[in-house]
Amino acid sequence: METKPSHPHSSSIPSTSSSSSISSPSATASPSTDITCDQKIEFHEETNDNVVTNGSPFVPPSSLSSTEPCTTLVITTASDSVDTLNNDNKEDHVRKTSSPPSVSLQRSATDFSTPSATLAPPHPVTHDTKTNKPYSIFSKRQKGMIVILAALSSFISPFSANIYFPALNTIRIDLNTTAEMISLTVTVYMIFQGLSPSFWGSLSDSWGRRPVYLMTLFIYVLACIGLFYTPNYTALLILRMLQAVGSSSVIAIGAGTIGDIAGPSERGGYMGVYGLGSMLGPILGPVLGGTISSTLGWRWIFGILAIFTGCLLLGLFFLLPETLRSLVGDGSVYANPTPYQYFTERHRKKKEQQIDIFINHKKSRFLVLPNPFVSLAYLMEKDVAVVLMYNALQYASFYCVLTSLSGLLSKLYGLNEFEIGFCYLASGLGAGMGSMASGRIMDWQFKRLAKKMGMEDHELKRGKMPLEFPLEQARMNFTWVYGIFFCMAMITYGWCLEIKIPLPLVLVFKCIMGFSVTATHNATTTLLVDLFPNNSAAIVASNNIVRCLLGAVAVLAINPGIYALGIGWMFTAISSVLFLSRALIIIELKLGPKWRVQRIERIETEKNTVSTIHSS
Q1: What local confidence, expressed as pLDDT, does residue 190 receive?
Q2: What's the CATH fold of domain 140-328+372-434+472-599?
Q3: Which among 469, 480, 485, 438 has a CA at the least distance from the CA of 585?
Q4: What Å distances lie between residue 557 and 24, 167, 244, CA to CA?
Q5: Host H or E run for residue 565
């Protein structure tokens, strides 16, 4: 796949070493290029943050004359992790511009987004803290479209997990199996929902977001079509696994996409909109599942999922640009083009005369195999482990509420499937308010702290904040409030059901829990993307692993726990464990910044050591 520039006079070539230095004149100019003076080569690298001039020294060819008019040969490259381009179809474009004979070169900085030396570290990336270049060239309208597409995609996985809850008994009768075997389809879906993003997330960090989006959702559509025609339980179980593999990846990739286009100062707000999609899935799923099952039959649950996702797939194909920053930088260069981008670039090339240089490239990025263990490696980082455990415990507790609600409302209040489905809307209302409110709060808190540090507005548009900026406080400062409200609401909810008070009051506390869990999820996800912006899909995949596996355990444990302890005491016990876990927030706010700095210093030392070995 080609990586081409959107600007008519610039393009991109990959660097041939991790330091982006040039070892020979032949690597920089073709015989047809007329270069006649002493000059230096400026390498402009599109990175996760900004564009700077690489500081590798260049020895000019001996044939150049210092008496002739001086030019500077400017080569625009993507970051070294772009060594992902095909050898046989990549064209690298060079432009000649007038400049003074002396060019100031700076040494590139280092990317600290890999958590451990046991992983293959990403190549160094550059960052210019002196320039005020915006983090992304996408307009606000374009960012809004990308976020909406990502949110709709993230809606699919949790929605699919919950939409056929009201039809479980009907499916059991139709396929002539047991309730335990049908419940197994829920459990395996959550297991594959937790594990598969570690594979797809790693792949999207090398191939790009767009091809993984299209590939995984195509697999999902095929699985839904198969489920519509499923003849027996075995086919149902296998296709539900395949459905989870195809749908769950978009949660991690979507968060990575937000990290690609939104700088830290605005990331919280966009994460709030994006998080609404993944949190509404468990809420709206049972509502629509009960309606579809009671009117059209349970098979049409999967038929409608296939139709909806097929339409979304077309929207992604035509509208979603590639955003992975190691491929497209701030968006000024594109890879994996949409049809419009492809034909626009093809038309431009016919009109403009370009100077092409061909060099030896590394192997295509599509030949790079994903490393699913990257996501697991993040669990070894202390600050990451604290954040993931805090979020996962609250998510699993909320899943206890969701999965037990249908049986409790049917038994205590005599509601049918259709009425039970509408009771889930209370959580949906809370989730919607929590998602939007938490995003605005995070953006406000971020700007308040930046202003307190004396940062100007133009500095907030840069991709990389100063090392001393309190990211943990900007994102997590209010999560303890959400946590306390969640614990209080859960205890009250359990005892309200125990004494069977009027249903509307029960739904109020359910709404409060929906608000709190969504606000917490958005805060933790945004912080993880801030900590590892270059590997955002992989780090969010690690979050998905922990919370989905704990959620699967919760699904298996909640009903036996209610039977053994009673409704009130079971939810009180869960809330007590959660209350103790709130200490993790104190640990993160106190020690998180220290652990973050230690990780950055450790990785910088390791990379300097590797660079010294290579240079020697």
Answers
A1: 80
A2: Growth Hormone; Chain: A; (1.20.1250)
A3: 480
A4: 65, 21, 22
A5: helix 536-565
What single DSSP character describes residue 121?
Answer: P
At 451, which amino acid appears? Answer: K
From 157, 161, 282, select the one nearest 213 (Cα to Cα).
157
Contact 78, 326 (CB under 8 A): yes
Helix (H, G, I), strand (E, B) or coil at 544: helix
- Burial class of residue 139, CB neighbours in 10 A (0-12, 13-18, 19+): exposed
Question: Do residues 42 and 103 touch, judged by C-beta distance below 8 A?
Answer: yes
Q: CA 149, CA 134: separation in Å to the nearest integer?
A: 23
Distance CA 19, CA 137 (A): 26
- Cα–Cα dist 31/23, whole Å: 17
| Residue boundaries of the structural domains of the chain | 1-133+342-366, 140-328+372-434+472-599
Give the residue among 38, 302, 68, 285 at the shortest CA–CA distance from 163.
Answer: 285
* Average pLDDT of the segment spanning 522-535: 85
Instruction: Write the secondary structure of 264-303 as one string of H (helix), E (strand) and C (coil).
Output: HHHHHHHHHHHHHHHHHHHHHHHHHHHHHHHHCCCHHHHH
- 148 Cα distance to chain centroid: 14
Closest of 198, 203, 248 to residue 373, by C-alpha: 198
Q: Flag whether the pTM goes above 0.70.
A: no
Please classify residue 437 by burial: count the beta carbons closer than 10 Å to its beta carbon, then call 0-12 exposed, 13-18 middle and 19+ buried.
middle
Pairing of strands 51-53, 71-78: unpaired
Cα separation, 95 vs 536, in Å, equals 33
Taking alpha carbons only, the member of 203, 207, 198, 46 closest to residue 125 is 46
What does the pLDDT look like over 273-295, one tens digit per residue?
A: 887 777 777 778 888 888 888 88
Q: Is the pLDDT of residue 560 over 70?
A: yes
**535 phi, psi to nearest 5 deg:** -130, 40
Question: By the 8 A CB rule, do 530 and 378 touch?
Answer: no
- Token pair for 343: 């034909």
Q: How many CA atoms lie within 13 A of 50 on its CB side?
A: 20
Which of 57-63's residues contact partners 24+ apart within 8 Å by CB, and which partners? 57/21, 57/105, 58/21, 58/22, 60/25, 61/25, 61/29, 61/35
Query: Amino acid identity, residue 327?
Result: L
Q: What is the mean pLDDT of the chain?
A: 74
Q: 390: burial class by Cβ within 10 Å (0-12, 13-18, 19+)?
A: buried
Amino acid, res. 587: I
Q: Which H helix or E strand runs over 53?
A: strand 51-53
